[in-house]
Amino acid sequence: MQRFDGRVALVTGGAHGIGRATAARLASEGASVAIADLDTEAAQKTADELTSADQIMALPCDVTDRESVDAAMAAVVERFGGLDVLVNNVGINGGPQFEDMDEAEWYRQLDPTLYGAVRCIKAALPMLLAARDGASVVSIGSVNGIAAFGNEAYSAAKAGLVNLTENLALRYGRHGVRFNLVAPATIHTRHWHQQFRDDPELLEMLGDLYPLGRIGQPEDIAAAVAYLASDDAAWVTGTVLRVDGGILAGAPSFLAAMRGHAERRNGR
Ligand SMILES: NC(=O)c1ccc[n+]([C@@H]2O[C@H](COP(=O)([O-])OP(=O)(O)OC[C@H]3O[C@@H](n4cnc5c(N)ncnc54)[C@H](O)[C@@H]3O)[C@@H](O)[C@H]2O)c1
């Protein structure tokens, strides 16, 4: 018996990176998985590469478009008969500096990253509320939504997801739907892959910033999502699980400065 036997999951942005690793992890533990992605070709390729074809489906889906989201949810129900797990994974980062960001740019990042999750949750709710053994929503946030790492619009959207998760956990707890959020730090996905290829020193520099001595892999996040989505987390809702290599655990520059100061005072 596997943790997701008989369960159905939908992963938005499941064609690449963290979404892909999550889809693979849930499928490997017995779930039927819908990969809902804007990049239809990559979604199909991912679905073809993962486990058995009758267990995985690729769906065209744009989380910024209500009709597209509704159609994806309907297709999942038609194919798999319901929905037990929703993973809100789409997030859009980047863009100009704060001074140069106009309202359209703010919306470009907030729409998929925050409102996209809202759209998906609203569309999925009837199925989640009807799930026989309880249901779970896991959103992919970011350390950017917890502390200042730059990228104000993206970070504000991720911070919004934290509060949305907490509010919905309270609202739907008694109705059998849990809401949790995973907050990753730097994860080796295609965005970073490109940068590391052009600048190999960057990978080492970033790894050195982490108490665990490396940046994360998509599978690190997939494991956390699978935990929160599973019955192992049956009494966990409204929580933020930082999967961040320890980067939010403290301030190394503060410790180094204090140590340096103490050493200077002691004349060493
Ligand atoms: N990679 C990191 O370092 C990192 C760190 C913290 C948080 N995150 C978060 O993790 C999530 C996944 O990031 P990733 O690095 O794996 O990204 P990625 O770019 O590798 O994959 C994102 C996927 O989302 C799809 N997508 C984009 N817009 C969409 C839309 N409107 N509708 C449907 N699908 C859409 C893309 O086609 C792609 O398959 C994001 O929410 C991101 O903010 C990533």
From TrEMBL:
Organism lineage: Bacteria, Bacillati, Actinomycetota, Actinomycetes, Jiangellales
Class in the EC hierarchy, top level: oxidoreductase
EC number in record: 1.1.1.47
Recorded coiled-coil stretches: none
Keyword Oxidoreductase: yes
PANTHER family: DEHYDROGENASES, SHORT CHAIN, SHORT-CHAIN TYPE DEHYDROGENASE_REDUCTASE BLR2146-RELATED
Family (UniProt): Belongs to the short-chain dehydrogenases/reductases (SDR) family.
GO molecular function per UniProt: glucose 1-dehydrogenase [NAD(P)+] activity
Keyword entries, A-Z: Oxidoreductase
Entry annotated with the keyword NAD: no
Entries under InterPro entries matching the protein: NAD(P)-bd_dom_sf, SDR_fam
Short name of one Pfam family: adh_short_C2
Designated name of the protein: Glucose 1-dehydrogenase
Originating organism: Phytoactinopolyspora mesophila
NCBIfam families (alphabetical): PRK07231.1
